[in-house]
Amino acid sequence: MADLKKIMEQLSELTVLEASELVKMLEEKWGVSAAAPVAVAAVPGVAAAAAEEVEEKTEFDVILKDAGPKKIQVIKVVRQLTNLGLADSKELAETAGSRILEAVSKEAAEDAKAKLEEAGGVVELV
């Protein structure tokens, strides 16, 4: 088994640039993302490097987790946001985890979320 204290000491001596390169190497080797809590929790310096590399997300999906008790109002908002017919809007509203909008701007996603939540729905932005 590896000497964990020795590994920790070596990692503590890395520069931010070296830590960033290590993150990339580990991502490729293990097929994980720098956002994974396990990858960044082990090395404090790597967390800072990973944070620098992450770009701000510009496109969001609006997911309706649950229509809530006011399903009819939620269906109306879904129709308004998607321009779908009544049957398709009803199906989206009744299916938990439905993507109402895909790859929209942050402003559009937040606006849609606000409208759906006002109607009684439970919404998530991803």
List keywords for this structure.
single chain; 126 residues; alpha+beta; Ribosomal Protein L30, Chain: A; three-stranded antiparallel sheet; 58% helix
Short description:
This protein has 126 residues and is α+β, with helices and mostly antiparallel strands. It has helices at 4-12, 16-30, 37-41, 44-53, 71-82, 86-94, 106-118, and strands at residues 60-66, 98-104, 122-125. A 3-stranded antiparallel β-sheet has the order 2-1-3, with helices on one face.
Q: What best-fitting shape do the alpha-carbon axes yield?
A: elongated
CATH level-four homologous superfamily name of the largest domain: Ribosomal protein L7/L12, C-terminal domain/Adaptor protein ClpS
CATH class categorisation of the largest domain: Alpha Beta
Structural class: alpha+beta
Q: State the end-to-end distance.
A: 40 Å
Assigned CATH architecture of the largest domain:
2-Layer Sandwich
Main pleated sheet: 3 strands, antiparallel
